[in-house]
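S.,

Sequence below, as promised.
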Amino acid sequence: MSLRFRLAALSLNASLLLATSGCARSDSSKGKSDPPPLRTEPATASPMDDAGNKGPFIRDRAEVIVDGQKEVWLLEWRTAPDTVCIDPATFGTCACEGFAYGESGSLWLRRKQGDVVTEELPFDTLFADGKSKLVRWVPSADEVAAKKVGEASAIVARPVVPILVFADYDHDGQATEFLLQISSEPCGHVGTVAVGVDRHNPKLHVFSSVERNAQSLVLNGKKEWHEVRANKSASLLELACGDHGNKEELRFEVTSDDRGIHLVEKKRACN
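The prediction came back faster than expected:
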């Protein structure tokens, strides 16, 4: 039996176990603390739906306070997703950095106020191949070092990675944004965006800079976004000299003010 189908069968039982083990989660970094989100349950959707249900399937669910009002945000697979970055042939490759062990399919965010769904935001177009991807279980350090897929029973017994972890990345005083990885190439560059609402745009959206408001603001992973969150002025090294043969150093100077997030690119020729 292939690993994919072994995982499919085992994940159903694992999801039931996970449903009873969730707890409140918050995202914090040095120098700044946001009130923890009101988390009501862990992600419980199974990667494969053996019952034949067509979806949508809840990947994550969380309560968030927007302008003093409690809302429920649902991250859902519109149909049962496929597994991704679990195949031994792809696990450990640059394309799977941050996505292993994961799921792939059609993903959207739905916003509920009371019992009414007020907004929906699809994510598939953010991904180069038109298919959304999310990590579900984190590989162990030994699995990463050996570039070897672990045992299926051990993988699905791990906690499901929460996605709807809110923080105030734009410094507008509200922790109404979460991070979403959208790419993993070139090697070592994990393209990540912030999604949510802000005081200038109360609709669900992917955040952009003031200077390029028609273009998503993509930073290299959670580490850079946490730096932006912790400081109203951050200097981020995007490309170092020699990185993939690069002959220019590229830095993002990111600042935040009442208008939003600003980004200025600075380049320096390498010696």
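The first strand starts at residue 57 and ends at 66.

Coffee later?
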